[in-house]
C-alpha cells in the first residue's frame, strides 16, 4: 500500500480523496495555485506544494510542476480526481516513466475512450449497444448528407474530441444540416484544435443513463447499477439520482452485465462510467468516462461502498473488496450540484462567502470546500458543492432533499440553491417524468 498520495486537483473532490486517504492511514499532499493558497484542501492535507500561478494551464494542468511536487514530497502515487489531468493519457505515461503510480486506468484505455469515434467502435466490438450513426468521421457535406439520409432525420453532429456540449449541433432536415455541419466543425476546431465530427441519430425524448463500472485490471469487473443524469442544461448535468426512476431491475441487470463484461474483457483498472441515451427500453452508448464522476456519491449511498478507497486499493495492486453478488441496492439517492452562478444566465458568481452553513441530519451529505470568509476565485469551475441525500425510497429522498436545501446557507455570492427549491415543486420532478431536454424547456418558460 502507498505511504503518501498526491491529489492533483482542488476543491471538494480534493477533500473527498483526502478523507479516504486519512481513513486508510495514508499521508496526503495537496497541490495548489497561488489563488488557492487559503483553500480548504490545502489546510486539510498533511503537506502542500504551490505549483504555479492562478491560471490552470500554469498550475493544475502543469504536468512538470505536479511531477516535481511528487518528487519533492516523496509521494508514490497521484489521484487525479475529475477534470484537469484525470483523462490525459500523456500525463499517465509521463507518471509511469517517472515511477509514479496513477490512481486510475492505463493510458491505453484513456486514449481509446478519449476519442469519440474510437470509443464507439470499441464499444460496438465489446457488445455495447450504440446509437445508429456514421462508421467514423464525416469529412465533407456530401458525405454528411448521405449518412444523414441513411440514418433518418433529425441527426446530431458531434466533435470527435468533444465534451461539455461544444462542437455539438442538431439538424432537423437537410437544409438545417448544412449550417449545423459547418458550425459544429468550426466550434470543434476552436475548442479542441480538431475539426473532425461524426453524425448520429438524434433521439427525441431520451434520458441520460450511466452505468458505474469497476475493474481490477486483471480481468475481473463489476457494475454498480445506474445513475439517471437527465436533468441537464447545455449538456451539463444539474441533478443526478440512483437508481434511475424508469429503469427496471431486468434492464439494470442486462445492461450492467454487458458493461461489466466489456471492461473485464479489456482488463480495465479502477472506476469508470459508461454513458447511454435511453429511450423506449433501449440503451445507446454515448461515451465512457475513464475516471471518477462528479456524481459518484449517489452510487456510494445506495451501495454503501467507498469508490475512492477501491480506486486506491486496485492501483496498489490489491483486490477489490466486493464481488457482483455483494452489491445490493439500498434505497434511493439524489445529488444536486451547487454552483456559484446567477440564474437564469448561469453566469459565474465568484466572490467572498459571508456565511456558509451545511445541512445535516439523517441521510444528508454535503461535499464542499466552502467556509465562512472563503473567497471563490474566478479562475476555475463554478461548482462549489454537492448536496447528496439518501432515503429508503425516492419520495423520502425528495423530502429529505427539500429539507436539506432549506437548511443550506451560501451567502455572499449567487448560487443555484434557489433553482433547486423551485424545481422540487415541479410535478415532473416529483414523478421522475423528465428527459434530457426538460430543464432547458422549463428555463425557457420561466425565464425566457
Characterise this structure.
- With 448 residues, this protein is an alpha+beta fold.
- Helices cover 35% and strands 28% of the residues.
- It contains 15 helices and 22 strands.
- The chain has an eight-stranded antiparallel sheet with strand order 13-12-9-10-11-14-21-19, with helices on both faces. Strands 3-2-1-4-5 form a five-stranded parallel sheet. Strands 7-6-8 form a three-stranded antiparallel sheet.
- Strand 2, helix 2 and strand 3 form a beta-alpha-beta unit.
- Helix 7 packs across helix 8.
Please render the helix and strand layout as text.
Layout (H helix, E strand, L loop, with lengths): L3 E4 L3 H13 L3 E7 L6 H5 L2 E6 L10 H11 L3 E3 L9 H9 L3 E2 L4 H8 L1 H10 L15 H11 L3 E9 L2 E6 L2 H19 L4 E5 L5 E10 L4 E13 L2 E7 L6 H17 L3 E11 L2 E8 L6 H8 L3 H9 L16 E8 L1 E2 L4 E2 L2 E2 L2 E3 L6 E5 L6 E2 L6 E9 L2 H14 L1 E3 L5 H7 L3 H5 L6 H10 L1
Parallel strand pairs: 1-2, 1-4, 2-3, 4-5
Antiparallel strand pairs: 6-7, 6-8, 9-10, 9-12, 10-11, 11-14, 12-13, 14-21, 15-16, 17-20, 18-22, 19-21
Helix pairs in contact: 4-5, 7-8
Amino acid at each position: 500500500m502507498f505511504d503518501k498520495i498526491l491529489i492533483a486537483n482542488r476543491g471538494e473532490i480534493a477533500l473527498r480523496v483526502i478523507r479516504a486517504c486519512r481513513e486508510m492511514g495514508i499521508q496526503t499532499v495537496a497541490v495548489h495555485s497561488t489563488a488557492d493558497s487559503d483553500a480548504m484542501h490545502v489546510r486539510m492535507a498533511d503537506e502542500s506544494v504551490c505549483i504555479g500561478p492562478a491560471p490552470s494551464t500554469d498550475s493544475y494542468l502543469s504536468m512538470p510542476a505536479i511531477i516535481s511536487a511528487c518528487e519533492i514530497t516523496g509521494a508514490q502515487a497521484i489521484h487525479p480526481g475529475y477534470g484537469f489531468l484525470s483523462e490525459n493519457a500523456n500525463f499517465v505515461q509521463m507518471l509511469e516513466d517517472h515511477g509514479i503510480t496513477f490512481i486510475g486506468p492505463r493510458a491505453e484505455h484513456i486514449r481509446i475512450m478519449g476519442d469519440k469515434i474510437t470509443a464507439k467502435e470499441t464499444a460496438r466490438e465489446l457488445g455495447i449497444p450504440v446509437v445508429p450513426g456514421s462508421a467514423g468521421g464525416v469529412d465533407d457535406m456530401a458525405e454528411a448528407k448521405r449518412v444523414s439520409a441513411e440514418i433518418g432525420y433529425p441527426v446530431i453532429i458531434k466533435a470527435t474530441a468533444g465534451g461539455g456540449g461544444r462542437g455539438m449541433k442538431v439538424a432537423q432536415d437537410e437544409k438545417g444540416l448544412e449550417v449545423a455541419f459547418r458550425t459544429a466543425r468550426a466550434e470543434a476546431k476552436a475548442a479542441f484544435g480538431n475539426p473532425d465530427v461524426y453524425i448520429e441519430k438524434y433521439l427525441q425524448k431520451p434520458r441520460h443513463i450511466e452505468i458505474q463500472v469497476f475493474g481490477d485490471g486483471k480481468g475481473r469487473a463489476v457494475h454498480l447499477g445506474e445513475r439517471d443524469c437527465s436533468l441537464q442544461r447545455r449538456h451539463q448535468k444539474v441533478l443526478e439520482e440512483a437508481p434511475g426512476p424508469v429503469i427496471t431491475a431486468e434492464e439494470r441487470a442486462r445492461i450492467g452485465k454487458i458493461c461489466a463484461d466489456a471492461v473485464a474483457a479489456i482488463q480495465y483498472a479502477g472506476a469508470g462510467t459508461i454513458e447511454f441515451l435511453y429511450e423506449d427500453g433501449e440503451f445507446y452508448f454515448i461515451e465512457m468516462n475513464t475516471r471518477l464522476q462528479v456524481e459518484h456519491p449517489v452510487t456510494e449511498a445506495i451501495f454503501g461502498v467507498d469508490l475512492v478507497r477501491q480506486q486506491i486499493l486496485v492501483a496498489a495492486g490489491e483486490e477489490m473488496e466486493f464481488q457482483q453478488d455483494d452489491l445490493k441496492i439500498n434505497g434511493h439517492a439524489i445529488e444536486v450540484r451547487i454552483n456559484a452562478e446567477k440564474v437564469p444566465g448561469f453566469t459565474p458568481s465568484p466572490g467572498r462567502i459571508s456565511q456558509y452553513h451545511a445541512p445535516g441530519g439523517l441521510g444528508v451529505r454535503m461535499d464542499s470546500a466552502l467556509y465562512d470568509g472563503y473567497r471563490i476565485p474566478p479562475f476555475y469551475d463554478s461548482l462549489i458543492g454537492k448536496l447528496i441525500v439518501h432515503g429508503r425510497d425516492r419520495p423520502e429522498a425528495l423530502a429529505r432533499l427539500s429539507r436539506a436545501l432549506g437548511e443550506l446557507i451560501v451567502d455572499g455570492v449567487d448560487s443555484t440553491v434557489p433553482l433547486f427549491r423551485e424545481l422540487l415543486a415541479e410535478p415532473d420532478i416529483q414523478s421522475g417524468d423528465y428527459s434530457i431536454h426538460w430543464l432547458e424547456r422549463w428555463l425557457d418558460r420561466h425565464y425566457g
